[in-house]
Batch of 2 targets.
Target 1
Amino acid sequence: MRGNIQSAIQQAIDGAPERGFVESVEMAFTIRDVDLKIPTNRIQEEIRLPSGRGKPIRIAMFAGGEMATKARAAGIDVIDPSTIEDLGGNRQKARKTAGQYDFFLSEIPHMGTVGRHLGAVLGPRGKMPRPVPPTLEPGNIATGLKDTAIVRSRDRVTFHTAVGSREQGIDDLTSNAVAVWERVTGKLERGAGNIRSCYVKTSMGPSVKVEVIG
């Protein structure tokens, strides 16, 4: 499959005009013969990309006191826990905040408050915060997330994720895409046999079909 994936990525990049920003390279799957009404059949994976995401990500943390200081020192934006309820009461502002960040972290005592007031906004986007115990450094967690791709099917047969950025080399993008392919197919009962189709594309470029074997 590696050769087929690499060929599709090369075609996708060659066929997409240069933009005034760094485009992501995305991989989309459509699966078949899988009952996604059953939650255990759904794809919900965090995949460490071997060549990284190729572009910066934004992380926010619900934290106060010393933990907030540590988060800021690690380049993490801090959201004051005292503002969570008000933020949850303003759906437009909550959606905007959810869209501004790729990942959220939270001190453990604030997880329940976040769930009550922001769960309806963050949950469907797969952005509920990761709890940070007082013994862990938020910067270490953030470092790991910078190379992480999230793949979530929910109850939909078609889903996608970014596997890197256009600025990365073809070999790096291929390694990332293969890691995603192997994790997704590894979660399916028939592996590649449950893949109806797979495409790759840049953010605004045309889709190129990956020849699926299996």
Target 2
Amino acid sequence: MDSLLTSKGYEKAGNYRFHSSKRLFIYPSYHKVNHHVIHVEYSYNPLEYETVSFDIQIPIRPIILSMAWQLAGSILLLFVLTFCLLYQIRTILFQKRIDSLRHEFMKNMIYEMKQPPADDNITDEAIHLGNMEFFYSLNELRNGTERVIITSRQAEILKLLADTPNEVVPRETILKQVWGDDSYANSLALNVQITYLRRALKSDERLCIEAIMKKGYLLKITD
């Protein structure tokens, strides 16, 4: 018995008692004495109702270690599942963003194709912005001999900002006048177009498009 308990990681049994019992134990009977001891009884000679009883010390440390490993494994599995879920969500959001940009690109292409051809000889409609001249109908910015061609949507956005320089133009106003509605996809497209406009204006240090949080954009012109 002691060798069996030792092989299972338990301490040797103690407090052996051999006695007669009026009860026949077909299977061992277990009684919990306290948190660390289990009392066991079983009939070793059923015909004579002879019974043996002993106490087994419960090893707390191996149980705690076993539970700790199981808990660590569960936490690791939960971490892996969470990582996979977050990666899947990130992939879906990234794909939706690509689809939105692709859709906006196609809308811009169709919009540009529908625009009437511009007359390169138009010079009297130039809007002076800092050191630059903005030709709205030509979708063109000029800074001396440098010429930058922008899209029709970018020209419309810049026209709205140039009409009230150094003043905030609400995002909703730009979205509704340029795109027709202020949907989330169009809002993302506006962010992209503002980025392109900033690049187009970077040759003039006096010009800057600033984003005002939760309000809109303003075309800042410094002296």
